[in-house]
Amino acid sequence: MNLLFYLTPKANCSYLYDDFTLRQAIERMEVSGYTALPILRRDGSYCGTLTEGDLLWAVKNLCIMDMRETEKYNIMDISHRRDNVPVSVTTGMEELLLRASDQNFVPVVDDKGAFIGIVTRRAILRCHPMQKEGAVL
Asked: Which residues are CB-contacts of 24 (< 8 A; sequence separation ≥ 6)?
């Protein structure tokens, strides 16, 4: 089975740009309702993941007490606990499942490294053939 079957396209994803401020990231995350978002460069390439925990630690470590102060910091200047490792659009299901077991979502890039969307664990669990047969994944 092809991983594109599980893909949430970029147009339907929430994401951040690497030039966003801490405040923009906080607001985007709040509006999206997600606890982790992919970070893209303006050229469309994937460059990392930002989590709520990353934001919380940044606010604590930078001693930010006023939301306006968050406008002074770029999201790439704060520590990211872990960046989700992307896969190529040609990646096989075994590799996709391996990545999805360790990440909330798996970023997918095309042959030129451009971000094209994500595959979530939820999408895999809802649609995987073994799930439909009643097997436990």
From this structure: 16, 75
What would the pLDDT profile of 95-125 be if each residue is shown by its tens digit? 999 999 888 899 999 999 999 999 998 888 8
Class of domain 3-132: alpha beta
**pTM of the predicted model as reported, rounded to 2 decimal places:** 0.87
Q: What is the torsional sign of CA 88, 132, 11, 25?
A: negative
In this predicted structure, what is the pLDDT of residue 129? Answer: 57
Parse the chain into domains and list their residue ranges. 3-132
100 sits in which H/E element:
helix 93-102
User: How does DSSP assign 15-81, residue by residue?
Assistant: -EETT-BHHHHHHHHHHH--SEEEEE-TTSBEEEEEEHHHHHHHHHHTT--SGGGGGG-BGGGS--S
Render pLDDT for 66-76 as a digit per residue (tens, 0 to 9). 889 999 999 99
Measured between its terminal Cα atoms, the distance across the chain in Å is: 16
